[in-house]
Each structure stands twice: as structure tokens, then as C-alpha cells.
Amino acid sequence: MSDNSENTTHFGYQTVNKEEKVGKVAEVFHSVAAKYDIMNDLMSMGIHRIWKRHTIACAGARPGNKVLDLAGGTGDLTAKFSRIVGENGQVVLADINESMLRVGRDKLRDLGIVGNVEYVLANAEELPFADNSFDIVTIAFGLRNVTDKDKALASIYRVLKPGGRLLVLEFSKPTTEGLSKIYDWYSFNLLPTMGKLVTNDADSYQYLAESIRMHPDQETLKSMMENAEFEEVTYQNLTGGIVALHKGYKF
User: Fold this and answer.
1) Distance (Å, rounded) from C-alpha 76 to C-alpha 91?
2) How does residue 210 score in pLDDT terms, banded at 50, 70 and 90?
3) Cα Dmax for the chain
4) In 10 A of CB 214, how many CB atoms?
5) Nearest 10 degrees: Cα torsion 170, 176, 178, 179
6) 131 Cβ partners below 8 Å, 6+ apart?
7) Residue 169 lies in a domain
8) In a domain, 72, yes or no
């Protein structure tokens, strides 16, 4: 789904100025950062951990690799990549939201994950890294919150090394009408209620439910990645298409 005009985009179901969206998304994640991991477990009934493990397995990281965990939030992928790439590798946990980055840093340090992890405050649309820097870039449940997704994909392509790969793990479109109806009821009834009970913030979880519906579907995102010059772009539907894992290469 493209923006309505040059200057506007969507924030959930609202139409807002592009500059305004950045601030609104920031407010959401400042609000939910402290309870983000708890809510992920509650919202997905723990299945998000399986989705993330599958992403790690499909990434094919090796000792010595340099990995960018973009929109890495509280560091679930970074923690696993850190162990895989080892002391000769590096993982950069990058996020546009300072609150999320702080929670991720503290969590990983408490786990003893130090030495090969760097933390960078970064906008996916304008990554502050040199060309051809990373073997792997992952973005898990972050792309839908980016204002200009095409610009972000181009920025990711630039910082990947030739032969490098991008993996996008994101909520997508259920593959059956029955599942879609159940998922809609769950998203718009239970998610805001859980958000209210756990974080005292129903509105942020209402936005998160809406943002999923406004995100490009599987085939559209595949085309967007191809337009950004990624090759051999494929995707896998997980949990009936509630989530999809897209993968593309820079050659």
C-alpha cells in the first residue's frame, strides 16, 4: 500500500503528515518499551519466539559475520546472533526509538551479552553505516512502522555487502477468510484490552492492530523488495500468514 500523497501517510487508520507519523510512532514505543517483552508473550501466546528462531535459522549467520538487527527493539534476535557470530563477528542493534534501545541494551547486558554488540540510534530510511557493511540485515516487526518503506529498503540494500541478505519478519495477511475473521476479532478486541491491563495503554495496542492491517501484503512486499534491487526474493507464511518471513539477496 502506497502513501495517499507525497506529504501524507498512514498512522494506523489515520491519515497524517509524514513528519507527524515519526513522532506518533515514537510515542507508542516510548509508552510500551518497559512492558514490550511481556506483551509480546501475551499477544502471541509465546509463538513470537518460534517465529524469531525460524528467522535466525533462515539467516544462515556464521562465525565472523557482521549482522544488523534493525528495529531490533529489546534484542531478541541480537542475543542469538551474538552467540552465533562469536568474538570475531559483530552485531549492531539499531532502533529509532531511544526507550526501546535502552531496554534492549540493559536486557542484553544483564544476560552477559557484551563485547560483540553495538547499539545505534538509527532511522531505517537513512542508515548511518557505510556501503557494503553487513553480511545480514534483519528487521523483525519493525518495517510496518517505517514511514517510507521503499526508502528504508533502498537504505538496507546499500549497507549490505554483495552476497548479503535481508530477512523481513512481519505481520502479514492470513491466508484463509476464517482465520482472518478470528484474527481481526482478536486484534481489535483482546489486544487493546491486554494493553490497558498490562501497560495502562489501550491506544498504543489499537494502533499496533491497525498498523498490521495497513502493512503491504505478502506479494506487495515481495515486489517492493524486488524494486529495491533485491534478487531471489521469497517469502514463507508462518501461522497461516499471520506472519510472513521475506528473504532477499544483494548480488
Assistant:
1) 12
2) confident
3) 48
4) 14
5) -20
6) 158, 159
7) yes
8) yes
Is there a contact between 152 and 143 (Cβ–Cβ < 8 Å)? Answer: yes
CATH of the domain at 32: 3.40.50.150
- How many domains does the chain divide into? 1
Alpha helices in the chain (DSSP H): 18-32, 36-44, 47-59, 76-85, 98-110, 149-159, 177-185, 191-199, 202-214, 218-227
Tell which residue, 174, 169, 158, has the closest CA to residue 246: 169
Contacts with 69 (C-beta within 8 Å, 6 or more apart), sequence order: 75, 77, 78, 81, 91, 92, 93, 94, 138, 140
Which helix (H) or strand (E) element contains residue 148? none
- Is 152 domain-assigned? yes
Structural domain includes residue 14: no
Instruction: Dump pLDDT digits (tens) for 95-142.
Output: 999 989 999 999 999 999 999 999 999 999 999 999 999 999 999 999
Structural domain harbouring 101 = 28-175+207-249
